[in-house]
Amino acid sequence: MAKAQFHKNQRVYVKPVGTWAIIERVLPQWAKGLDEPLRIFYDVGLGREFSAEELQAEQIQTLDIAQMPKETWRIVRARNKWQPEIDCKHHPFPGSYPVVMTGETDWGGWRVPGAEYDLDPRRIEGQSRLIATAPKLLAIAAALTEIAARATGDESQEVIGLAEDARRLIKFIEG
């Protein structure tokens, strides 16, 4: 008994021909009295039917979280010394402001002047979250450029454009 290993419209590598193709039809061979097909062939539009052994599924790249940067930037809340809590009730976290710690110690990193925080606290909160996640975003950009470098030429132009943008950003960040 056989089970289908691929599905219609799936992109596969056809080993005997040495090219990529899309499965157009799944062709099971049935035998009378059996609940499952004996064999399954696949029509990929190359003039003959191929068995599952002759096809190879496209490998989907996933990001390995373990390979993300070990650098853990984090947001801590610092006490607002320049205004009493009653004067800043409109802040998302009254009486405090975000500080992004970029090292293992609880000093150093990114801070914002009190007057600037008071002008638009929600924008500053968003900036602090963006800065804290920057190392992981950089790892994602690097993975995207690596995937594009191994491209087979069948990738969409949008993905290739994003990879090029990511490469430029990494070059800018690295100086």
Describe the protein's architecture and organization.
With 175 residues, the protein is an alpha+beta fold. The protein folds into two domains: 11-57, no CATH class; 65-174, no CATH class. The chain is built from three helices and eight strands. Strands 2-1-6 form a three-stranded antiparallel β-sheet, with no helix packed on it. A three-stranded antiparallel β-sheet has the order 3-4-5, with no helix packed on it. Strand 4 and strand 5 form a beta hairpin. Helix 2 (121-149) packs across helix 3 (157-174). The longest helix is centred in the last third of the chain and has 29 residues, at 121-149. The model has no long low-confidence stretch (mean pLDDT 82).
Structural class: alpha+beta
Number of structural domains: 2
Q: Give the total of beta strands.
A: 8
Query: Which overall shape is indicated by the principal axes computed on the Cα atoms?
Result: elongated
Supply Rg: 27 Å
**Percent in strands:** 15-25%
Number of helices: 3
The rounded distance between the terminal residues' Cα atoms is 59 Å
Major beta sheet, specifics?
3 strands, antiparallel
Which series of helices and strands comes N to C? Answer: EEEEEEEEHHH
Helix-residue proportion: 25-40%
Q: Can you give the mean pLDDT?
A: 82
Strand order of the largest sheet: 2-1-6
Low-confidence spans: pLDDT under 50, at least 5 residues? none
